[in-house]
């Protein structure tokens, strides 16, 4: 009965429990994954894991994707061997997700891109090398078997391990570069969230380093050293990085309580010396008992079950504690209540339970200590065995070499013995001859030395004579050249001084003449501007008597806005005049102010006449009479403004309910249009990747990516505008509700609606243009024009949104930042479009080598005619564009009913 209760505890969790653990381990909280949640996921294959993960929004939340990578890495290492094979079907999705997060240059997005590349590399390595388990734990014999005794296989396997370790190091460096190492980041939840996956990286890296060292020694024993120079260089680079990263990691407080990180030797192994293999010590990563792996805990459970079978009364109590922790207990139904059994009291039972529990804990700690000690001893013995094997091989080699040398010396000794016997026979007869020869040789050597000394002395004297002669010749030539250069430089300096003096005098004269011309040009420009202003005003006055003007009408609101703009421009004119009188340099600002005022006054005259056509005759006569009897322009404008205020209608043309709802509908429609445009761009990007290749695919991806950035920026702008409008309404301004506020400020509301419509329309048109460009049917210029139009529409939305906001409003600052983002994104679309156009279009080379003089002259005339035609067409199109914009501004000002505050917003936007 006891075993019946305990048996389910030793089994793996069910699929539903694993799904719950997955959701608890992979979430959006920036904290490290809990070990118990990750441990529960390991007991099943990959099907349940991917079924739960595929429902998570990994592409929209970087923290969520980061924790997914951590859990998936642990599952690949410690899970079932089929996990790697079952997960390969998701390789394409992981690659796409890595490219998507790679567009971010910092934060978790960049780290997710690097981690996903590492996981893909890990799966590909284990699929290609199925002998390697997920945790990379292999013996030397298994490592030899993985290469199948083929040096080519070992060579390729080493390259793949280098690539594998490179991905591990990139993630290591990415995490450290994203943290501020000057602070105690390892004790914060956010820092631990980034550091937690590095435990898996440390485990993988230690094995990969150990295997690459052993494989490189094996390759150096089979191949020439020059062939493996690239392998050695790459190993040296990775050794330095791994050593530094292990050292930095071991100093972090977070790792000190979870893992014991090995330290690499001071210098890398010398692969050119075979005996250096015995000096290599495999790095061992030690995980303390409290952070032991699931396999260790499962083994402890099996040991305790064996204790239950041997009738030791302690283990059921320990399982009872685990059972109580998981499911709770009840004194009435507890099958392990020993209060009334075997005649023992409850206090004795409790003391016995506590005593045995402490003993079990002590045994577990001792078992873990034995395990660690045995691991260290095995590692030391394994290193000693490798050292002895290498020494034995070296001694065997020396023994064979000594045997060969001994045979060679024995044969050489026999030859020398025979030569000695022959020599002794001849030695006796040659002794006298040698004695005489030695005396003659000594005399000859003395004479030869004397002769050699005389010859050497004579040669030295000849060389010294030639050297002195050459030096004298060179010195004379150098002196002549120096004298010539000195005379030439003196003449040039004198000529330069005279020329400089002439240039200074001429420059002074030109400056005086230019100053006079500049003063005259400024005055002439100012007179021309004043005359042009008079003509503009006279032209506006002449329109009042034009019969065709009688049918023109205007609103009092628009007339008031024109009057206010004229008054503001007069203030600007006075400031420009004062600046010009002060230093005579601000003529350009004065000319612009005069011209602008003339246009505004002329527009005010025309709009005043048009407004008078819409009011009763008595009010119209009063307006004209006020204008006639005003003494100055400012007084006349003030009078017209006052009359326009009187003529403003007091009622509302829209129903209150409709206007309030219309704002929400238009803002929602704009948001929907932007979302739809972004979705269409994403769909176009996928189609382009499936169909296009080469330069065209690269250009389309760059253009669509910039369009996507623009859509995101517009989306942020619309959200910021809605938040700012909510703040404006919440601030009160005398309105009891949102709809009443919109109705009370109808002109501002209508301007806001118009701006929102323009943004949604611009987004839709830009997507259509981009679709045609990607298909090769559209024009790049049309896409650039659409981008500029969107920028103008968003500027209109910004102006309409912030016109009633307080300058210290936080959402107003957010709106301005969003507006800057739209401007930058628009510039990105234009830049990518121009770049793509220049990359796609082919530039014809101009080769005129085979043309005659007459043909060249003919083509030159044709080219001039074409230039003139294009310039004329360009001028007409610019004039047409100006008229269209003018008409657009008129319709936006009159039909939408913008008021004074809207006019101020337009001026601020300009």
UniProtKB/TrEMBL annotation:
It is found in: Cytoplasm, Perinuclear region; Cytoplasmic vesicle membrane. Keywords: Acetylation, Actin-binding, Coiled coil, Cytoplasm, Cytoplasmic vesicle, Endocytosis, Membrane. Its main location: cytoplasm. SUPFAM superfamilies: ENTH/VHS domain, I/LWEQ domain. The keyword Transcription regulation does not apply. Residues 10-133 form the ENTH domain. One of its GO terms (molecular function) is actin filament binding. Residues 346-450, 475-502 form a coiled coil. GO terms for cellular component: clathrin-coated vesicle; cortical actin cytoskeleton; cytoplasmic vesicle membrane; perinuclear region of cytoplasm; presynapse. One of its GO terms (biological process) is regulation of endocytosis. Residues 651-892 form the I/LWEQ domain. The keyword RNA-binding does not apply. Homodimer. Interacts with actin; homodimerization promotes actin binding. Interacts with CLTB. Interacts with HIP1. Interacts (via ENTH and I/LWEQ domains) with BCL2L10. Component of clathrin-coated pits and vesicles, that may link the endocytic machinery to the actin cytoskeleton. Binds 3-phosphoinositides (via ENTH domain). May act through the ENTH domain to promote cell survival by stabilizing receptor tyrosine kinases following ligand-induced endocytosis. Belongs to the SLA2 family. This is Huntingtin-interacting protein 1-related protein. It comes from Oncorhynchus tshawytscha (Chinook salmon). The gene is HIP1.
């Amino acid at each position: 009965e006891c075993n019946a209760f305990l048996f389910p505890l030793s089994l793996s969790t069910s699929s539903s429990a694993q799904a719950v653990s997955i959701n608890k381990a992979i979430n959006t909280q920036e904290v490290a994954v809990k070990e118990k949640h990750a441990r529960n996921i390991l007991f099943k294959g990959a099907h349940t894991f991917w079924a739960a993960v595929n429902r998570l929004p990994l592409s929209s939340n970087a923290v969520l994707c980061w924790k997914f990578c951590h859990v998936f890495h642990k599952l690949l290492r410690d899970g079932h061997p089929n996990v790697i094979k079952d997960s390969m079907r998701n390789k394409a999705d992981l690659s796409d997700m890595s490219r998507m997060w790679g567009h971010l240059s910092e934060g978790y997005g960049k780290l997710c891109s690097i981690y996903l590349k590492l996981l893909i590399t890990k799966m590909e390595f284990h699929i290609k090398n199925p002998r390697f388990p997920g945790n990379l734990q292999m013996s030397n014999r298994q490592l030899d078997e993985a290469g199948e005794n083929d040096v080519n296989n070992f060579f390729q396997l080493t390259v793949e391990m280098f690539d594998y370790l490179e991905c591990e190091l990139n993630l290591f460096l990415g995490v450290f570069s994203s943290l501020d190492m000057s602070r105690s980041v390892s004790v914060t939840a956010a820092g631990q969230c980034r550091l937690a996956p590095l435990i898996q990286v440390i485990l993988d890296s230690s094995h990969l380093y150990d295997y690459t060292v052993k494989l490189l020694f094996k390759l150096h024993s089979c191949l020439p050293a020059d062939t493996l120079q690239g392998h050695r260089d790459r190993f040296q680079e990775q050794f330095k990085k791994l050593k530094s990263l292990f050292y930095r990691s071991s100093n972090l407080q977070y790792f000190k309580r979870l893992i014991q990180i090995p330290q690499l030797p001071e210098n890398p192994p010398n692969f050119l010396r075979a005996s250096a293999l015995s000096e290599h010590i495999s790095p061992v990563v030690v995980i303390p008992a409290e952070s032991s792996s699931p396999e260790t805990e499962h083994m402890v459970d099996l040991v305790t079950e064996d204790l239950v079978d041997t009738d030791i009364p302690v283990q059921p109590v320990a399982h009872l504690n685990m059972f109580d922790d998981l499911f709770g207990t009840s004194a009435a139904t507890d099958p392990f209540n020993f209060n009334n059994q075997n005649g023992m009291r409850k206090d004795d039972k409790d003391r016995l339970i506590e005593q045995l529990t402490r003993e079990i804990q002590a045994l577990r700690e001792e078992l873990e200590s034995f395990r660690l000690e045995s691991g260290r001893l095995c590692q030391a013995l394994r290193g000693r065995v490798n050292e002895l094997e290498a020494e034995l091989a070296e001694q065997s080699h020396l023994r064979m070499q000594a045997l060969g040398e001994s045979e060679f010396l024995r044969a050489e000794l026999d030859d020398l013995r025979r030569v000695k016997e022959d020599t002794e026979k001849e030695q006796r007869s040659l002794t006298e001859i040698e004695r005489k020869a030695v005396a003659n040789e000594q005399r000859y050597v003395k004479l030869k030395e004397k002769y050699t000394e005389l010859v050497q002395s004579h040669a030295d004297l000849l060389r010294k004579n030639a050297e002195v002669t050459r030096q004298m010749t060179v010195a004379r030539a150098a002196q002549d050249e120096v004298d010539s250069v000195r005379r030439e430089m003196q003449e040039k300096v004198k000529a330069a001084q005279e020329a400089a003096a002439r240039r200074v005098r001429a420059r002074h004269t030109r400056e005086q003449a230019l100053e006079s011309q500049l003063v005259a040009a400024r005055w002439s420009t100012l007179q021309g501007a004043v005359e042009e202003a008079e003509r503009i005003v006279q032209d506006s006055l002449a329109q009042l008597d034009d019969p065709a003007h009688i049918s023109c009408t205007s609103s009092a609101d628009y007339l008031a806005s024109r009057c206010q703009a004229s008054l503001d421009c007069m203030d600007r004119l006075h400031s420009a005049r004062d600046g010009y009188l002060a230093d005579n340099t601000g003529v350009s600002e004065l000319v612009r102010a005069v011209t602008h005022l003339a246009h505004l006054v002329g527009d005010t005259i025309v709009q005043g006449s048009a407004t008078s056509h819409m009011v009763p005759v008595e009010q119209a006569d009063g307006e004209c009479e006020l204008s006639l009897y005003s003494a100055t322009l400012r007084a006349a404008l003030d009078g017209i403004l006052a009359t326009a205020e009187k003529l403003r209608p007091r009622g509302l043309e829209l129903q209150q309910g409709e206007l309030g709802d219309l704002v929400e509908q238009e803002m929602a429609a704009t948001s929907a249009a932007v979302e739809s445009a972004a979705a269409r761009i994403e769909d176009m990007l996928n189609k382009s990747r499936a169909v296009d290749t080469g330069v065209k695919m690269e250009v389309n991806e760059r253009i669509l990516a910039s369009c996507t950035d623009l859509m995101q920026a517009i989306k942020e702008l619309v959200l910021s505008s809605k938040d700012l409008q909510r703040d404006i309404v919440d601030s009160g301004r005398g309105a009891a509700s949102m709809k009443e506020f919109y109705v009370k400020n109808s002109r501002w509301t209508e301007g806001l609606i118009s701006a929102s419509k323009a943004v949604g329309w611009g987004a839709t048109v830009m997507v259509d243009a981009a679709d045609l460009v990607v298909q090769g049917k559209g024009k790049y210029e049309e896409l650039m024009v659409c981008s500029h139009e969107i920028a103008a529409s968003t500027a209109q939305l910004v102006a309409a949104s912030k016109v009633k906001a307080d300058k210290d409003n936080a959402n107003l600052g957010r709106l301005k930042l969003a507006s800057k983002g739209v401007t930058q994104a628009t510039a990105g679309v234009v830049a990518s479009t121009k770049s793509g156009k220049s990359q796609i279009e082919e530039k014809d080379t101009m080769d005129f080598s085979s043309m005659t003089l007459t043909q060249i002259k003919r083509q030159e005339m044709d080219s001039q005619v074409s230039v003139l035609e294009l310039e004329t067409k360009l001028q007409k199109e610019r004039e047409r564009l100006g008229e269209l914009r003018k008409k657009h501004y008129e319709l936006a000002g009159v039909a939408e009913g913008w008021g004074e505050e809207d006019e101020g917003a337009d001026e601020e936007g300009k």
